[in-house]
UniProtKB/TrEMBL annotation, chains A, B:
<feature type="domain" description="PurM-like N-terminal">
    <location>
        <begin position="47"/>
        <end position="161"/>
    </location>
</feature>
<dbReference type="InterPro" id="IPR016188">
    <property type="entry name" value="PurM-like_N"/>
</dbReference>
<dbReference type="GO" id="GO:0051604">
    <property type="term" value="P:protein maturation"/>
</dbReference>
<dbReference type="InterPro" id="IPR011854">
    <property type="entry name" value="HypE"/>
</dbReference>
<feature type="domain" description="PurM-like C-terminal">
    <location>
        <begin position="174"/>
        <end position="327"/>
    </location>
</feature>
<dbReference type="Pfam" id="PF02769">
    <property type="entry name" value="AIRS_C"/>
</dbReference>
<dbReference type="Pfam" id="PF00586">
    <property type="entry name" value="AIRS"/>
</dbReference>
<comment type="similarity">
    <text>Belongs to the HypE family.</text>
</comment>
<protein>
    <submittedName>
        <fullName>Hydrogenase expression/formation protein HypE</fullName>
    </submittedName>
</protein>
<dbReference type="InterPro" id="IPR036676">
    <property type="entry name" value="PurM-like_C_sf"/>
</dbReference>
<dbReference type="InterPro" id="IPR010918">
    <property type="entry name" value="PurM-like_C_dom"/>
</dbReference>
<dbReference type="InterPro" id="IPR036921">
    <property type="entry name" value="PurM-like_N_sf"/>
</dbReference>
Amino acid sequence: MKTDYQRPIDWRQGRVDLNHGAGGRAAAQLVDELFARAFDNEWLRQGDDGAALPAPPPGHRLVMATDGHVISPLFFPGGDIGGLAVHGTVNDVAMLGATPLYLAASFILEEGFALAELKTIVESMAAAAREAGVAIVTGDTKVVERGKGDGVFITTTGVGALPPGRAIGGANARPGDVVLLSGTIGEHGVAVLSQRESLEFETRIVSDTAALNGLVAAMLAAVPEGAVRTLRDPTRGGVATTLNEIARQSGVGLHLDEAAIPMQAQVAAACELLGLDPLYVANEGKLLAVAASEHAEALLAAMRAHPRGRDAAIIGRVVADERRFVQMTTRLGGRRIVDWLSGEQLPRIC
Amino acid sequence: MKTDYQRPIDWRQGRVDLNHGAGGRAAAQLVDELFARAFDNEWLRQGDDGAALPAPPPGHRLVMATDGHVISPLFFPGGDIGGLAVHGTVNDVAMLGATPLYLAASFILEEGFALAELKTIVESMAAAAREAGVAIVTGDTKVVERGKGDGVFITTTGVGALPPGRAIGGANARPGDVVLLSGTIGEHGVAVLSQRESLEFETRIVSDTAALNGLVAAMLAAVPEGAVRTLRDPTRGGVATTLNEIARQSGVGLHLDEAAIPMQAQVAAACELLGLDPLYVANEGKLLAVAASEHAEALLAAMRAHPRGRDAAIIGRVVADERRFVQMTTRLGGRRIVDWLSGEQLPRIC
């Protein structure tokens, strides 16, 4: 399968040029010497424009999710766009209760982007995929002229296997259920914003970017099928937006207890300094769960026993409310509406 | 599931702003009133961050393919980026002999892009998907600042069902096999380039952009399993590049007959005027097939009986050649090497 290329890729000084996306020899060399090597697996090695893959076990359904990643800056405390692109899509698949199996990756590169940075990002993707137990089985690379892109955009699409009888989704929350959160909020958004604005805090705040499929598997193993109604990762728009989506889909109201929502002290301080409401700040390694109240304690224990759920907490409950309001009892004992994000908060956070 | 939005979307004068990608109310409104409406199907209606889908029939494998689309201009004679984004990925799935079932779509929009153009593009995608018999089941939208993108980029990812025992791929060509081409070459690239350069030809050349899954199904029904070794659509880099990929993957040589390669007279004339070799010009509705010689005539007849294969022809044969050269007997009776595309030809052609 090797071709003799005219010259080796210059991984130190080299830059992406339009030929890397033109489908000729330069493009083939980039695929061979970067993507195929980093992501190596039997399906990618087929070398076709798609991959032929084992289907999920009999009786299982498919889950499919896609996410474009345009985060700026590309490298931030705790991660980079490569790892994030794997985590984001793995998590979307896992949030339906499916086991993530395969990822496809599409790169849109800007002419002039440093090949050294691309290599770092691709290797970060490969490491994240290995850690999450998924294979990157097919991909595509395009190049746009300088000034028509922004370094690299990565769209990942995931396919997973959904066991028979499993029904987890945003529409399944019922009055009486409880709302759980897997850990502290706001780290990803604050880490990215502080990098972007060159802010220095006393303690370095790092993104929580992580794959959550392991945590989800541990949770689902701890309670009977059906006990977990909804799982969702509060990324763009944060916990507030995600809970409003669930309230809308399920036709219910939600009551939160502000004091129960876990948050690092330095994240709270940074949000105050930056004028951000942490409820709207993106997370990339946390999940919200809605569960039947009688199984909530067992679920919470399973979450706390997992490294990605150590700070898990019950933060609220589902109520009947035709207006589908998300309300919160504040630390001071008042009650306020937690509305949809209306203005812009943090663009290009993922 | 409906939310009362503060104001209606202005489809005439409105433009994409950063809020459309921020995960809040504006983003939800765009999803509700554009994507969900145009692509409507039971899986998209689930409204989650992924879709739960019926698996392929028992015994079938999965096929997965992804393609980023960055074509410029977005609208060109014979199509637009929306239809192209569906066709490109449907075809990649079909080229492995699989039946395309589902598509995921990821949009990266530039701030300031006209919502009217976005609507046209999305409706074109919906029409292309309906015609190809696939459902767009999940999606994502991001927005980047003005000057950090170029209108819209669309990554589509397809999943298909591959019947038991089917093995079609670039590595399966064997000496003695024949090479078939489904129709005339070069229309897509020439149509896009003429639009880009504002060239006018006497006869309007239109892109051949089309889904080929119907043609593939007709071909595979006409010959025994195994007779078709390889299918591939000669997009970026054209017929020459695709044949070099097949030669490389299969470890064989290919001999082409230039006189047998179908081409419209005005495409040949335009290529001469533009200094392009039509063998390297992108197609978006054509396929190359490598097949066992004893079934070649039956396959050719099946291709010609299908609307997308009317001009199909046998254009060459597979030979043993460790150097994996693609050679061509020219119209004048000489022989030349058809090498990989080395320099840049047409960037952003798909």
